[in-house]
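F.,

This is the one I mentioned.
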């Protein structure tokens, strides 16, 4: 039985890659230095996996920014707006084009927007969306997967190159224009894929992993046909290729036959998300196919329950024999932190229930050793499992009792929206097209350093608080000078919009170095929910009240919603997720009430991850959405009609969930729309969404400063889609990743654009 890891984290155990890339962008280090760090990180991963005893060690799971973008560059899927830049930087080893596609490019007389970015399935990882159009001609460009395979070989390590499979690549992208069908596109891409696979084979690769996570989603018959066509064509062109067709994040369900019919030598399945699929697969597996069992959870940080895993593995052995089985993690370990050994401050009781990437790899090999008779490993594991089940740290009867007592009235505002809107307009007295921001302002090195100093003990809590108050004061004045209508305090006291709340709630613990890549060089440190959640005391009221005391303009209270806290944490797996979400909702509800009592008239409860949590299968979606909406409503419905509730969402498509967005009944929703040129707003228009809406007018992921005319045009477009009195003006998302100069310029342009549009509509 071979052991198989579908992918490993790449940011570096001490975030070395993040630092190297950011220093390269800032001109502080050379390309050679960035490449050196990258090579060191790859080598560390490969040797670590080899030492652990893994047979199928992934390569090409490394990326400077994103693996989907890597594939775009490799196959030449480059939007026409980058062509001139491509010619300017003709040297293939120059990463200027690569980073420009990721981050936009606004220098040397170029002004090019980045590729759109969106969620990778139901994860907090974001990928860059490939743009396909009829004019593109595809060909192989700098195939990094070949280079990395050879690099590993030169280190004496034979790896398994990992590529996104042709259909998942195609389905993760957007076809621009009506003159290119999916099948035409596939016809153009396939020869280049084949050429790429042939190059890998020529370089000596044996197993090649093709990731096809779309196989766990609902597929049309056209797409199923394309799957057949693509894989048959590849197999005919390269009959000796050993393809490990890899699925994850769910079960194959109605795509089981399809997945088994595709000519691949092995199929990887996720038995953490969908253990029930094992029986079907074992019964239907063709005799010449191998099955890779993903039994160790690649999406969470809990220790593997060996007894449960062994039951699945033994069943598979009994049916098809050890030789036809591979054993591994459910998906790439990209979604978990590197190494639990680095966590010296974790409570030892909770720590013994956990496993990070390095420990998960060890779990895979341990399972194999137990199968060959090493029972000691099993005994330790059983002790950890039973300690967790019986720990008194987990259960709080008062929380469970409060949850049981929730009534429908607790999830409903007192009056319907039109009544609330009238009241709020008369109190807030805002102009048409009111301007606001989404909450965070630049988290400068100085602000982050303050927190680092506080942690190290080199400054006192008093100094920290005074310096944060100073940052808030400056930011309130900056916003007043810019002429914004509804202000924010800037979120300077927060390391992260979820971790900050996790640190203050009971039932959570948090790590020192549990970083996980979110997009590009941006990482998050998800807190860990291990038990019943409760708010011991107010979390944000002091900062919000202070900010409000500085100005006569409304300052939005700023909270993270229950579904987003759930989605961006590592969640306990001993009760249904939605039960945890409702506990979180009660904690946020208490905070909302305290903010209102403190005189905050506008309160924003962010739910950017509401869509991320959507089940991948349509049949399970409405149940999830009903519960998610209920959790949001429970969190906010405690307020009076006069208090304006905002919510915010980014990285979301709204077409298929718009009725649930409406059911959230937030007085104002701000959304990310600029990268898609307001395309996302059409869902709101088609549904005649009744409440107020702030479609983002500029992309905050890029340092690029949008011009007044550009934002004005977007607002005019919004005005054709929504009632004028309902439109707010704001960026796509928070500004924490930006620098102050570009932020001020962009916001000044945004306020001018709003003023121009006000004038235009009043004439
Ligand atoms: C809105 N988004 C978020 C998502 N998920 C979250 N959990 N949070 C989000 O905000 N998902 C969707 C999007 C993804 N977007 C982002 C945007 C920005 C970041 C980001 O900026 N990440 C930071 C790390 C943030 C943080 O926790 N900072 C801490 C520690 C900072 C640090 O590195 N300190 C240094 C010392 C100080 C220094 O020299 O700078 C150190 O420890 O070495 C803090 O501020 O205290 C990032 O840099 O990646 C993430 C997702
Ligand atoms: N209030 C948060 C929302 C991010 S999705 C921010 O502004 O950063
Ligand atoms: Zn956002």
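My design for it:
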């Amino acid at each position: 039985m071979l052991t198989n890891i579908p992918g490993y984290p790449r940011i570096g155990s001490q975030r070395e890659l993040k630092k190297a890339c950011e220093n390269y962008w800032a001109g502080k280090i050379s390309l050679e230095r960035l490449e050196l760090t990258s090579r060191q990180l790859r080598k560390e991963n490969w040797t670590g996996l080899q030492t652990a005893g893994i047979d199928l060690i992934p390569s090409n799971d490394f990326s400077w920014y994103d693996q989907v973008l890597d594939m775009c560059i490799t196959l030449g899927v480059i939007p026409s707006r980058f062509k001139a830049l491509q010619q300017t930087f003709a040297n293939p080893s120059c990463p200027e084009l690569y980073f420009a596609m990721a981050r936009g490019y606004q220098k040397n007389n170029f002004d090019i927007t980045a590729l759109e970015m969106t969620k990778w399935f139901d994860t907090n990882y974001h990928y860059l969306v490939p743009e396909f159009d009829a004019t593109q001609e595809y060909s192989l460009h700098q195939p990094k997967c070949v280079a990395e395979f050879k690099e590993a070989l030169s280190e004496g390590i034979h790896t398994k190159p990992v590529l996104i499979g042709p259909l998942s690549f195609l389905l993760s992208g957007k076809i621009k224009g009506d003159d290119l069908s999916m099948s035409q596109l596939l016809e153009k891409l396939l020869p280049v894929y084949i050429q790429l696979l042939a190059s890998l084979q020529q370089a000596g690769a044996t197993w090649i992993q093709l990731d096809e996570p779309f196989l766990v989603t609902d597929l049309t018959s056209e797409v199923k046909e394309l799957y057949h066509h693509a894989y048959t064509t590849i197999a005919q062109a390269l009959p000796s290729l050993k393809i490990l067709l890899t699925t994850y994040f769910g079960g194959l369900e109605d795509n089981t036959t399809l997945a088994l019919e595709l000519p691949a030598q092995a199929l990887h399945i996720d038995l953490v998300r969908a253990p029930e699929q094992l029986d079907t697969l074992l019964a239907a597996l063709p005799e010449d196919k191998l099955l890779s069992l993903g039994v160790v959870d690649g999406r969470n940080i809990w220790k593997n329950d060996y007894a449960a895993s062994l039951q699945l593995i033994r069943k598979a052995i009994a049916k098809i024999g050890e030789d036809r089985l591979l054993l591994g993690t459910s998906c790439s370990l990209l979604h978990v932190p590197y190494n639990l050994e680095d966590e010296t401050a974790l409570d030892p009781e909770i720590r013994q229930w956990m496993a990070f990437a390095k420990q998960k790899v060890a779990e895979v090999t341990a399972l194999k050793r137990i199968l060959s008779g090493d029972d000691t490993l099993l005994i330790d594991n059983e002790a950890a499992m039973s300690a967790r089940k019986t720990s008194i740290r987990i259960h709080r009867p008062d929380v469970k009792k409060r949850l049981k007592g929730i009534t429908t009235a607790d999830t409903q505002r007192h009056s319907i929206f039109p009544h609330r809107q009238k009241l709020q307009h008369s109190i807030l007295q805002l102009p048409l097209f009111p301007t606001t921001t989404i909450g965070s302002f630049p988290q400068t090195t100085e602000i982050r350093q303050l927190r680092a100093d506080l942690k190290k003990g080199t400054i006192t809590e008093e100094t920290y608080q005074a310096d944060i108050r100073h940052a808030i004061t400056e930011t309130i004045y900056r916003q007043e000078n810019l002429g914004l209508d509804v202000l924010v305090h800037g979120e300077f006291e927060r390391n992260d919009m979820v971790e900050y709340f996790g640190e203050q709630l009971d039932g959570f613990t948090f790590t020192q170095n549990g970083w996980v890549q979110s997009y590009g060089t941006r990482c998050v440190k998800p807190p860990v929910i291990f038990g019943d959640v409760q708010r011991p005391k107010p979390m944000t009221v002091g900062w919000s009240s202070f900010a409000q005391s500085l100005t006569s303009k409304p300052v939005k209270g700023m909270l993270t919603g229950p579904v987003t806290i759930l989605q961006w944490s590592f969640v306990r797996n001993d009760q249904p997720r939605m039960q945890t979400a409702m506990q979180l909702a009660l904690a946020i509800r208490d905070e909302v009430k305290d903010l209102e009592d403190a005189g905050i008239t506008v309160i924003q409860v962010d739910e950017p991850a509401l869509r991320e949590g959507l089940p991948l299968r349509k049949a399970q979606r409405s149940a999830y959405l009903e519960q998610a909406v209920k959790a949001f409503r429970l969190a906010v419905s405690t307020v009076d009609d006069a208090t304006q509730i905002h919510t915010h969402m980014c990285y979301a498509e709204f077409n298929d969930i718009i009725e649930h967005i409406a059911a959230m009944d937030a007085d104002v929703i701000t959304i990310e729309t600029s990268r898609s040129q307001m395309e996302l707003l059409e869902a709101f228009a088609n549904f005649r969404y009744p409440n107020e809406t702030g479609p983002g007018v500029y992309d905050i992921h890029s340092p690029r400063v949008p011009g007044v005319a550009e934002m004005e045009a977007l607002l005019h477009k919004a005005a054709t889609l929504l009632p004028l009195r309902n439109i707010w003006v704001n960026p796509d998302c928070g500004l924490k990743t930006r620098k102050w100069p570009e932020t001020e310029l962009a916001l000044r342009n945004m306020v001018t654009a709003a003023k121009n549009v006000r004038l235009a509509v009043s004439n």
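The chain has a mean pLDDT of 96.

Talk soon.
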